[in-house]
Every structure is written in structure tokens, then in C-alpha cells.
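Annual report, structural modelling task.

Input specification for the NDP complex:
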Amino acid sequence: MEYITFNNGVKMPLEGFGVFQVPDPTVCERAVLDAVACGYRLIDTAAAYGNEEAVGRAIAKCGVPREELFLTTKLWVQDASYEGAKAAVQTSLRKLGLDYIDLYLIHQPMGDYYGAWRAMEELCEAGKLRAIGVSNFYPHVLCDFCETVAVKPAVNQVELHPFFQQENALALMKEYGVVPEAWGPFAEGNHGIFTHPVLTAIGQKYGKTAAQVALRWNVQRGVAVIPKSVHKERMEQNLNIWDFSLSDGEMAQITELDVGHSEIVDHSAPDFVKRLHSLKVHD
Ligand code: NDP
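The model returned the following structure:
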């Protein structure tokens, strides 16, 4: 496993385990326990996933010392304000059963996220959050944000996979010292990614699957990945990407797969924005 160092000196594993769309607490707890047993040390959850308590139970039971784990969670839109973020961090800490969070992200650039950021800066200073970052900040939003705030985000977690590569966004993140982290590194299964002919043919040279090639391609371009699976054999497979390298030619072949847009979400669609505003994670 390789690590990446943030702009504030905190180190994060370049590969972690995501738990979006694992709402069943028993399944989630089991999945996180299996993931930690496989060797994952970064767990990515969010207030909006409704599974922070299950993740917390797994962390408590897994037997790995807290300081060896790296826990990411996220602020939901409903709590995007100064006071809202202060309270939301306390709620996440309680649900997770932790006294600090390694990385706390603004989940969406919606609501009063500048107010939320000021609260997060203070909580970082107070040691409750080791690092703070953002998610789904498309280039114009990230640029405005970085030009405005005192503490630059450590991470921007955005959709990044062979079919939506966002090279321009990565260049901007590099300019501001923001680490890119890929959500949906398998495009959530779209584009036939697991049997894609180009990824499969490249993988065959190394005895790897298309899934492993997709992850390796991202980490090789400096992007952290947080694949999700509730199947232990897939968790193991997804973690087994650190013993091979793609050639420049293979990286270039994958570059050709970019379709230049998401087929999962359209963050610029007003209906989508309204839907996220209406999603409440608490009363
Ligand atoms: P992924 O791209 O990781 O795809 C997950 C899907 O791939 C699941 O259906 C899983 O099935 C399947 N899968 C996993 N590994 C394999 C494999 N080796 N072979 C075949 N199928 C496989 O989607 P996610 O949306 O879950 O993204 C990953 C993480 O990113 C999330 O869990 C979450 O933590 C984060 N995220 C953040 C967002 C944000 O807005 N910040 C948005 C979306 C995700 P199965 O589980 O049945 O094995």
C-alpha cells in the first residue's frame, strides 16, 4: 500500500474501502470487518449513507489500533452552515464511537458551505478533525473555494474512472495542492467495466482483472481510490493492485476510453440539486 501526504502533513492510504449503498447495518458491519481483515485501513462513509453506527461498531470490534485506521466521513447538505457543521461533526463522532475523524469532507457544494468550512477549520484546529476537504467540487467551484478560504482542502473526492477521467479537474487540484480521490472508481458497474475488452486484455498480461486495471490506472496517476464491495473475494481482488504497473502505452490506451461526462449523476441539473436539498439525514 502506498500513502499520500496532505498539505497539512497528514498521510492517507491511496486505497480505501467505500460503504455507499450499504444501508443494512448487519451487512455494513460485516463488510467493514471483512475489509479490515483483508488489509484495508481507510474506510469511507458519510452522514448521508445512514451507516456510521455500523461502521463504528466494526471499527470497535476489528482489533486494529485506532491510529492505524483512517476514517473519512462527510457533512450532508442539510447541515451546511457554521452551526450545522459544528453539530454534525459531534453527531458523526458519537455515531462512529470515535473522538476524532481523520478526514471530514463537505459532501456537496450546496447550502452555506463557506460557513461550514469555517467551523471545520476550527474543529481541525481543536483536534477533532485531522484533515478537512471537499467532495463534488467541479473545477469552477473548487477554484472559487480555494481562492477564498484560509485553509485549502486536503482532498476533493469526485467521480473518476476510465470513462470519466477529468484531467482538467486533476490539473487544477494539483495547482492548489488538493489530493484527488475517486468515488465510483468502477463507474458503479456502468460501461460494462468488469468485462471491458480493453481493460480485460491489459489485465491478462499481468494476471489481473479489468477491475484491478481500472484501480491501478487511477492510483498510477496519483488518484486515491475507495472501491466498494460487500463480497470478501472482491475486496481482496480490489486490494491486490500493488504488485504490478501499467506501461505508458497501456495508460494511454485507457485514456482513449474517456467519454468526458458522468453517466451516474448530473450535478448541474436543478432537479438533482433540489433532490439533494430535500434529502434529510436527521429531523
Ligand atoms: P464503485 O464504482 O466502487 O462500484 C461498486 C460496485 O462494483 C458494486 O456494485 C460492487 O458490487 C461492484 N464490484 C466491486 N468490486 C468488484 C469486482 N472486483 N468485480 C465485480 N464487481 C465489483 O461505486 P461506489 O459508488 O460504491 O463508489 C465507491 C465509494 O465512493 C462509495 O462506496 C462511497 O464511499 C464513495 N462515493 C462517494 C460519493 C460522493 O458523492 N462523495 C458518491 C458515490 C460514492 P458488490 O458490492 O455486490 O460486490
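The CA atoms of residues 217 and 251 lie 7 Å apart.
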